[in-house]
Amino acid sequence: MKALVYTSPGTVQVQERPKPAIQEPTDAIVRLLHASICGTDLHILKGDVPSIQPGIVLGHEGVGVVDAVGSAVSGLQVGDRVLISCMTACGACRSCQRSLTSHCQTGGWTLGNRIDGTQAEFVRVPHATLSLHRLAPSIPSRAALALSDALPTGLECGILSANVQPGGSVVIVGAGPVGMAALLTAKLYTPALIAMVDLDATRLATARTLGAHATVNSTAPDTVQQLLALTQGEGFDSVIEAVGVPATFALCQELVAVGGRIANVGVHGTKVDLHIERLWDRNISIHMMLVNATTTPRLLRLVEAGMLDVGSLVTHNFPCAEGATAYATFQAAAQHQALKVAIDFDSA
């Protein structure tokens, strides 16, 4: 089968790999229709995740068709069209029992990390019963990619961690796929103000069409002043960092209101500064986590009911043979006006 393989720092190649086989009774084999590239995959290429060595098939997001199931898999049949969760969960270990499926003792972030991932014609999915979700016929396959990771990450790591409330104020720093997912899911909680910050004017325009009340370009010398003016100088109740660099985390600290929350969503490859000398008496909290993807069934129901439109998040798609071009496009997302980039294994 064809697969996108991380071959060396900064490089991915399309290679021929053996088709995976069932190894455990809880496994399923999925034939991919579409996979997508996550910002975390770019961090891997940059060397920000040194535990991942060259030679692995990348990817932890995908939609496909069940090709085979192990004897212990329940609720799934060969031929089912499924969403692959970015987290695999056994459902039985102490972490899973605490809803911390990202720290499942035999699962968690497994695909494209500890075992070969989804950017291939076939993938082996451990703990398939809880890690695959059947898709309703009304949900398009390629659009559903945003539900593998971006939407649950935006909701769990962003909106819920930042305690977004009706009538509150929210600022999202970073208008990439996860930032946009946070925007879409923030609207479900009816805050009075949602502001989006980014250095890409095109992404900010997209944010406005998706429901942001205000946008500010972070290249402006008075970025902080513009944003604080939206709250009459009080700061934001909920501040969401969705980039993963020191400058954006520093900006979030300047924007949080007394009693507010900062939710860190971005993947940080270098240390950041915490200005506790300015924040210690402001009654704030800072929350950081890895997505557990426990909200995926809820998000699927919202999409099926027409209450959450994810169709605009996947903006580009390439056949598997052009996987390197897909990565180059995502790496230069601003130049190509790209949000999520899909890799297609099926023309549908």
UniProtKB/TrEMBL annotation:
All residue ranges annotated as the Enoyl reductase (ER) domain in the record: 7-343
One Pfam family here: ADH_N
Matches recorded under Gene3D superfamilies: Medium-chain alcohol dehydrogenases, catalytic domain, NAD(P)-binding Rossmann-like Domain
Cofactors that this protein relies on: Zn(2+)
Domain of life: Eukaryota
Keyword Thylakoid annotated: no
Keywords recorded for this protein, A-Z: Metal-binding, Oxidoreductase, Zinc
Keyword Metal-binding found: yes
Record family assignment: Belongs to the zinc-containing alcohol dehydrogenase family.
Protein name stated in the entry: Chaperonin 10-like protein
